[in-house]
Design a protein that fits this description.
TIM Barrel; eight-stranded parallel barrel; 10 helices; globular; binds flavin-adenine dinucleotide
């Protein structure tokens, strides 16, 4: 039987023109990686995203490379936002990084707590991302547009779902302008999370984070580490394909395109793609969505 899928609607529909589409990169650590990133950015720039963002290794491990990649992207004519994570850093270090960003004319950040690699002793002067957001607002006023992370399936270290939601509210109340979510493959968790935020009076845009599916082993590893669920039916299908990378790719494209379609149809305020520095899957999903 061919019944139409019911469309879920968020209470606040975002007009198409104000939706935010963005692409995330990690900072390469070789000159070849930088060249490859420049090619990827060139390809993805044709899709006219609002911005590119570049991740930041916990404890400042990619400090120079993140800035370098952001400056290269800006020099090529693209809007680019660095991520900054506070765990393991002192206030002085964070102030220095932010001053550097301001001097370079950067006005857009993704502010995070980050995760210290296991075995690292020092926790630094910030414990949670809400402290970083408050620090940025105190020291730099409204200079930066601040994005924070959101977890529709809840953060793996949260004491409870309710606690995590209240902690998300702390970041918003500390001065975040918008949020990007951890990736997920079940649109209902996103809709539920947005409803809960609205019920708490939070009205910032919460943009779904989208992870295209390339290699199953890599996806499974990431998902275990960050607490993002791969639904059982997807896991079983992906496992069943074994080394057949064409089938994994075809299945992943179908599932992720449909997820994006459902999210946008319901009024999501945009999409943020975790590109893994590759243009192919993201561009194909984009074309299939007819964006
Ligand atoms: P927080 O918001 O501080 O939350 C962390 C945990 O602490 C949660 O369980 C929360 O419930 C709890 N908590 C928060 N505030 C309080 C409080 N005041 N009291 C008690 N408990 C509290 N990591 C990187 O290292 N570099 C990156 O570039 C990076 N980019 C990311 C981009 C996005 C869009 C996302 C979704 C994640 C990214 N991460 C990155 C991963 C992120 O750093 C981890 O998920 C990290 O574990 C949590 O960071 P957070 O900013 O969400 O932390």
């Amino acid at each position: 039987m061919n019944t139409p899928r019911p469309t879920r609607h968020l209470s606040r529909l975002t007009p198409d023109a104000s939706r935010s589409f963005s692409f995330e990169f990690f900072p390469p650590n070789t000159p070849e990686g930088m060249d490859k990133l420049a090619q990827t950015a060139k390809q993805l720039a044709q899709l006219n995203p609002k911005f590119f963002s570049v991740t930041y290794g916990a404890g400042g491990s990619t400090r120079e490379r993140t800035l370098r990649a952001v400056l290269d992207l800006r020099a090529a004519g693209y809007a680019a936002a660095p991520h900054i994570s506070c765990i393991g850093s002192s206030r002085e270090e964070i102030r220095g990084i932010l001053q550097g960003y301001r001097e370079q004319g950067i006005r857009h950040l993704v502010a995070l707590r980050g995760d210290l690699p296991s075995g690292t002793a020092t926790a630094g002067e910030f414990q949670y991302a809400n402290e970083l957001v408050a620090f940025i607002r105190k020291e730099f006023g409204d200079h930066f547009h601040i994005e924070v992370a959101a977890y529709p399936e809840y953060h793996p270290q949260a004491k409870s779902a309710r606690d995590d939601l209240l902690n998300f509210r702390r970041k918003v109340e500390a001065g975040a302008n918008s949020a990007i979510t951890q990736y997920f493959y079940n649109a209902d968790c996103y809709f539920h999370f947005v409803d809960e935020c609205e019920a708490m009076g939070l009205s910032l845009p919460i943009v779904p984070g989208i992870m295209p599916i390339g290699k199953f082993s890599q996806l499974a590893r990431f998902s275990d580490a960050c607490g993002a669920e791969i639904p059982r039916w997807m896991r079983r299908k992906l496992e069943g394909y074994g080394d057949d990378s064409d089938s994994i790719r075809a299945f992943g494209l179908d599932v992720v395109t449909r997820l994006c379609d459902d999210l946008l149809a319901a009024g999501a305020p945009g999409l943020h793609f975790y590109t893994m520095n590759q243009a192919g899957l993201t561009s194909t999903i984009w074309q299939r969505l007819g964006l």
